[in-house]
Amino acid sequence: MHFLDQAKIFIRSGAGGPGAVSFRREKYVEYGGPDGGNGGKGGDIVFEAVSGLNTLIDFRYAQHFKAKRGGHGMGRDRTGAGADDLVIKVPLGTQVISDEDGETVLADLTEVGQRVTMLEGGMGGRGNASYKTSTNRAPRQHQPGEPAQEMYVWLRLKLLADAGLVGLPNAGKSTFINQVSNAQAKVGDYAFTTLVPKLGVVRHKSREFVLADIPGLIEGAADGAGIGDRFLGHIERCRVLIHLIDVGGIDPVEAMRIVEEELEAYGGGLEDKPRLVALNKIDLSGADLAADYAEELLEAGADQVFPISGATGEGIEALLDAVLSYLPAKTVTEHPDGEVEDADEEQPWSPL
């Protein structure tokens, strides 16, 4: 399945049905009076978050969504049928963004089953029976029904994950996520092997959590270089970040500085999230060199440094133990309806 994290669509609610102009016709009743019914209500446009989806690719092929209009009013005081709402199903973590400025968030769907009515259908028009008065016994007025509402919106997907992987290109993130989860990320000995974000479910010590892997970051990512700003949006909802550094790449302290500056420049709370620094590929460098680099990173401001090997699995258990310490009692996969249970009380799940 192809990954797509943003799409522009057109939505239009249903117009209200027109009211009817009708008069009672019955044998031996000369003046039956008005009996035109009201029109039916048009359908609403509703967005619903569902599980089992992690891409907006369907909206590349279906971009126009129009609810049906309400039914016409009819004689014998019959009200027109109301139209069904048009429900647009989107993945968890989808934001509905205004097309006018491309920034205003109209809805943020973070719980399974959450529904947001984006456009309301028009109310049905009044039939002539509702205009009858003591002085106007045979009205011919009626209303056409309220018009439909329409607009363009952007759908932007920000993946729901408990932990996120960040690092420079070719830091070994794909190898790591394949080692610890059920993901099947492409691995290659070149930069930007990963082109789209990926999710994997990690099972560790009778717990499980969702790990997000985003493409490697480069300088200027927060400003859009390498569309890094879109990638960083996918880890906004993570509770903890794992910063992978290639022990055989550029100076580890410099690698940490580049990524830290991009997280801070992007904002969105990323600069305040706890980060675990992992020195990767120690199977190629040796334990002594890894220990020296770990000391330098700690002196440069890293809170915790874990020498690991994504290829062999060495040191990964300690890293995953540390990740679990930052996660709630119930994670996204362990309690997919969106509630988090604490030891003392139940609280609603929050992505932040």
Please render the helix and strand layout as text:
Layout: E1 6-12, E2 45-50, E3 64-66, E4 86-91, E5 94-98, E6 105-109, E7 115-119, E8 150-157, E9 163-166, H1 173-180, E10 198-204, E11 207-213, H2 228-233, E12 240-246, H3 252-266, E13 275-280, H4 282-285, H5 287-299, E14 305-307, H6 316-324, E15 339-341, E16 346-348
Parallel strand pairs: 1-3, 2-4, 9-11, 9-12, 12-13, 13-14
Antiparallel strand pairs: 1-8, 2-7, 5-6, 5-8, 10-11, 15-16
Explain what you see.
The chain has 352 residues and is an alpha/beta fold. The protein folds into two domains: 1-157, GTP1/OBG domain (Spo0b-associated Gtp-binding Protein, Chain: A, Distorted Sandwich); 163-348, P-loop containing nucleotide triphosphate hydrolases (Rossmann fold), CATH 3.40.50. The chain has helices spanning 173-180, 228-233, 252-266, 282-285, 287-299, 316-324, and strands at residues 6-12, 45-50, 64-66, 86-91, 94-98, 105-109, 115-119, 150-157, 163-166, 198-204, 207-213, 240-246, 275-280, 305-307, 339-341, 346-348. A hairpin with a 4-residue loop joins strand 15 and strand 16. It starts with 5 loop residues before the first strand and ends with a strand.
